[in-house]
Design brief:
The complex is a heterotrimer of chains A (297), B (432) and C (262). Chain A is mainly alpha-helical. Helices cover 76% and strands 3% of the residues of chain A. In chain A, strands 1-2 form a two-stranded antiparallel ribbon. The longest helix of chain A has 42 residues. The radius of gyration of chain A is 19 Å and the shape is globular. The chains are: A mainly alpha (297), B mainly alpha (432), C alpha/beta (262).
Chain lengths: 297, 432, 262
């Protein structure tokens, strides 16, 4: 039974992430996702320390607050003092992450959060924290939280699908039609932040990125149609969750680490298929083009 | 002991371990500042991030093969994995439709995931000696030993030599790779060399500050230094100084309370320096911009105030005597606050005197007044002549530009316009 | 050589945009007629695209404003359509020709309205107008440059606007596509549409345009084609940048000096 709970929790994370990740990579915003996932740490630690509760609403608020702070830091460096985008991202998130680690050490024994958990989560312990209605156990708390998150993400994307696609594909045209590119960007970032926060405990900061970017990138290589790409990404994420779980059992190692490894293997396979189909395609971009989308001034 | 005494006592090297931490942090941060300058200039700060996360599987595999924590083994493992990760990013983004930001995030997280997989496998298998392997994730400067510091010193010297030797080539590679290639620089070789020294720096640093925060050591010093200078040489020296200072201060802070990690403190100090630089830095800093704006506003207020005297006296042909504040308010078309400020500063600088309850210009004030009108009319003529604007459209533009025309540009305009006498409205351009 | 028109389609006032220490456009002041094909020409970096973008509200001007049919852009957005440069988007985006053309239709719709049968017919009709009907299910990554350009045109057509602003619609297309695009534009003109086209081939200009705007950071000329297309005016347009203006613009940026004091 525990196995099932763990696998379904992973699947929930994978599904929300695959949907959001598909948009994220088309918008060339993968690294902003990376920054947010690291930067939510201090907010979580403070809220956790204050409330002594790991999953409550305050933790969510704390995380959202630090997510907002890191975005404003990036904006400050990039816009106000005109630092290049890659460095703005790098400075901002490492600063908040360092702050989070210091806070963990500072509160030390008072909080039951350890440093490793922050990076790669404790999905194996998910079944231990069961939710109760009346006298019956209805399953792990994490499972239900992630399920709600998935419902939110799916409905948010469903409602705004066309707007999100339009602003991802052609910013100039969208703006000319009176659609705010910035608004939909923040809409998407909101979804990414929420998913990062609720997935934090089970898969940790860095592996959430593997979930966001990996399956979407794999699917992108395999199809030319955006809707199909989203469903393929979900499928890839789900299969990675299942295979990763068993890989972890076999190797007696971290489940999140194993899932990320499977995601990497899936990508390599897809890459081989892609290269086989597109032998003609060679370096169109300079080998080192700027890794981050530089906003037009 | 107070916190401050604790902090100071770090620098007295009272405990033997402290000396190691001091030198270790110093050597490490200094070389990161140096190497990071190039990653920063090449807008590849996030490549440093990839390398830092990706050394983990290398370290773990090296441990598995070597069965012990031999620093040399681990360094080699880390270097290979870090280098592989840059190759992977490069390969994915150049050989497929995947863009480099996605490639970076993907490689970073998958390599790290693999590292976690191997690391937890080692931990769970209860292998002897495994304790301390996890320190690579968050770093533990206090665990450095004299041998480490010796390695650091050697690597520092080697990297510094490489940078000195290839300085000009690296500089060109960062600014204009196409030009560098066109004059026959071996671009690929240079990239590999830069890549190798970056990977080596990261591999060396993860032990002290950990994989996540190592990238800060590469990115932040150069970014902070950039706020002080436009010159690459100065920037690199500054980056090294800022970085080394942060390393030492961070280590000292973490020393003051037990259980405090060193790496995060170094990063916090570094970030604080970057933030401070962005605020007060001489180059693009926020405070600088604010001061500049104030001085611009002051200049505009003064010149506009003095200019109104020109119009009120018909180009100083008439002498209506002292002009009252009331007349100025009514005739100058300036906002009250601007006028008040203009009068205040003009008086302060001696351009304006109070006489019989009104204002008169000093000789210098009159000169500035004429000069401003002159620039205004020259600019009007210039844009109507060269930009084909109609005479009734040139005034607003000139109202702004008149304050920024330098004597050189003024001379240039005169020559272009063939030393004109009148503006597009047939008003005389005053001579000074 | 700036001709003003009464009851203009588009008018700009003192439109000025300064990028990174460089003036892109400076003090552009013109009125454009209705129902004509208007060419916007000038050397590289003369601010042609920036002019279009600032008319469409994609770039905020430092100074100045634009009026379309004597209203602000927001009031007449439904009557204006924009065709961006082909290279401004990532053609590796996973979408079909039909998907992209449909964007023009649903850009106008509210968030919840679905495309109905009439929309579908308009889309197919517009695809047919640019001869892409057989390609409607083709992936956009597999298109040639000329086909990509026609996808963008079809998308704009579905918007059924009165004014079309096209940024370099003839760049990178083969000669026959160029001809068919021009035929299409002329047909649109006969339906009373106003079309602005950024273009840079002087040789073909006389066959294409009724009205010509010549730009080199500043507005050099704007008027009926035959009046503007003269050697001395072209020489003025293509005769290099105004260095003094560039110096002023870079000083403005460097000292963060306000262009207009409020």
């Amino acid at each position: 039974m525990n196995d099932l709970w763990i696998i379904s929790t992973a699947i929930l994370v994978a599904t929300s992430s695959a949907i959001l990740g598909s948009f994220l990579i088309m918008r060339k915003m993968a690294m902003i996702g990376d920054a947010i996932s690291h930067a939510v740490l201090p907010g979580i630690v403070i809220a956790y320390f204050v409330t002594q509760n790991r999953t409550g609403f305050p933790v969510l608020m704390g995380a959202a607050a630090s997510g907002l702070i890191v975005t404003s830091f990036i904006q400050f460096f990039n816009r106000r003092v005109r630092l290049q985008m890659d460095a703005s991202i790098g400075i901002s998130y490492t600063f908040l992450f360092a702050l989070g680690i210091i806070l963990i050490s500072y509160f030390g024994s008072n909080v039951d959060l350890d440093q490793e958990c922050v990076l790669y989560g404790e999905i194996a312990y998910v079944p231990l924290d069961q939710l109760m209605i009346g006298d019956t156990l209805i399953g792990p708390r994490q499972f239900w939280i992630l399920l709600i998150n998935l419902v939110l993400v799916v409905s948010a994307v469903f409602i705004a699908y066309r707007r999100l696609v339009l602003t991802s594909f052609d910013e100039g045209f969208a703006t000319s039609a009176g659609i705010s590119v910035v608004f939909w960007q923040y809409y998407l970032m909101g979804g990414v932040s929420l998913t990062t926060v609720v997935s934090f405990e089970s898969v940790g900061a860095i592996l959430v990125i593997a979930f966001l970017v990996g399956p979407a990138a794999t699917a992108y290589l395999l199809t030319d149609q955006f809707k199909r790409m989203i469903f393929l990404a979900i499928g890839t994420g789900i299969s990675a969750s299942i295979l990763g779980y068993y890989l972890a059992v076999v190797t007696n190692a971290s489940i999140a680490g194993a899932i990320a490894t499977v995601i990497g293997i899936q990508f390599m396979l897809a890459f081989a298929v892609y290269r086989n189909k597109h032998k003609w395609r060679d370096s169109k971009h300079a080998p080192y083009d700027s890794p981050v989308k530089v906003e037009p001034e | 002991m107070t916190w401050w005494q604790e902090f100071i006592s770090f620098f007295s090297f009272a405990e033997p371990n402290v000396e190691i931490v001091f030198w270790g942090s110093l050597l490490l941060s200094a070389v990161s500042g140096l190497v990071g300058s190039f990653t920063f200039l090449r807008k590849q700060s996030l490549i440093g991030d990839v390398i830092a996360h990706s050394v983990l599987p290398g370290i773990c595999l090296a441990f598995l093969i070597g069965k012990e924590k031999d620093p040399a083994y681990l360094l080699i493992g880390a270097t290979i994995a870090g280098w592989l990760s840059t190759v992977a990013v490069d390969f994915i983004s150049s050989r497929s439709k995947i863009k480099s930001d996605t490639a970076i995030a993907l490689v970073l997280s998958v390599f790290f995931g693999l590292g976690v997989l191997i690391l937890t496998n080692i931990q769970h298998s209860g292998m002897a000696n495994q304790s301390g392997l996890d320190q690579f994730i968050f770093g533990r400067a206090s665990a450095m030993n004299p041998a480490d510091v010796q390695v650091f010193a050697v690597v520092d010297i080697l990297i510094t030599l490489v940078v000195l030797l290839f300085f000009r080539a690296f500089k060109l590679l960062s600014f204009d790779p196409q030009f560098a290639q066109s004059i026959g620089f071996p671009l690929d070789l240079l990239r590999v060399i830069l890549s190798v020294i970056t990977v080596a720096t990261v591999a060396m640093g993860v032990q002290a500050v950990g994989v996540v925060l190592m990238s800060a050591l590469l990115i932040t010093p150069a970014a902070a230094a950039r706020f002080w200078t436009d010159r690459i040489r100065v920037m690199m020296i500054l980056a090294v100084v800022i970085s080394a200072a942060s390393g030492v201060i961070g280590a000292a802070i973490s020393y003051t309370s037990s259980g405090m990690p060193t790496g995060p403190w170094i990063v916090i100090v570094l970030s604080a320096m970057a933030l401070l630089s962005s605020l007060v830095g001489k180059n693009k800093g926020l405070l600088q911009a604010r001061l500049l704006r104030w001085s611009n506003d002051r200049k505009i207020a003064i010149e506009n105030t003095l200019k109104s005297f020109f119009y009120l006296t018909d180009g100083f042909e008439d002498d209506p005597g002292p002009i009252s504040s009331k007349t100025l308010r009514e005739k100058s078309r300036m906002h009250r606050a601007d006028l008040r400020r203009g009068i205040f500063f003009s008086r302060l600088k001696g351009f304006l005197k109070k006489e019989n309850g009104g204002w008169v210009l000093s000789e210098e004030g009159e000169k500035i007044s004429k000069e401003t009108v002159r620039k205004h009319r020259l600019w009007e003529l210039y844009i109507s002549k060269f930009m084909h604007l109609k005479p009734d459209h040139v005034h607003d533009d000139a109202e702004g530009i008149e304050h920024i025309i330098t004597p050189e540009i003024e001379a240039e305009l005169e020559e272009l316009l063939e030393f004109p006498e009148t503006d597009p409205h047939d008003k005389a351009i005053p001579k000074v | 050589m700036i001709t003003e028109v009464k009851d203009p389609s588009i008018e700009t006032h003192n439109l000025t945009v300064v990028y990174n220490k460089k003036p892109a456009i400076w003090n552009i002041d013109f009125t454009l007629p209705k129902g004509q094909i208007i060419g916007i020409m000038g050397p590289n970096g003369s601010g042609k695209s920036t002019l279009l973008k600032s008319i469409m509200g994609i770039v905020d001007p430092n100074i100045g404003y634009v009026r379309i049919f004597d209203e602000t852009l927001d009031e007449v957005r439904d009557r204006v359509s924009y065709v961006p440069q082909r290279q401004s988007v990532d053609w590796d985006f996973p979408a079909s020709v039909y998907d992209v053309v449909a964007m023009g239709r649903y850009a106008r719709k509210g968030m919840f309205k679905r495309l109905n049968k009439a929309d579908h017919e308009v889309i197919l009709e517009c695809l047919d107008k640019v001869n892409l009907l057989p390609y409607q299910n083709r992936q956009i990554s597999q298109l040639s440059g000329g086909q990509q350009q026609r996808v963008f045109l079809a998308r704009a057509l579905t918007q059924e606007a009165d004014v079309y602003l096209m940024d370099e619609p003839l760049v990178g297309v083969d000669a026959s596509t160029e001809q068919s695009i021009i035929t299409l534009l002329k047909q649109m003109k006969s339906e009373g549409k106003t079309i602005l086209v950024v273009h840079h081939d002087l040789h073909t200009a006389s066959d294409y345009f009724d009205w010509l705007v010549l730009l080199n950071t500043r507005l050099v000329a704007s008027g009926p084609f035959s009046e503007v297309f003269a050697e001395d005016i072209l020489k003025d347009t293509y005769g290099g940048q105004l260095t003094t203006l560039s110096k002023i613009a870079s000083l403005l940026k460097e000292k963060s000096f306000p262009m207009r004091h409020k």
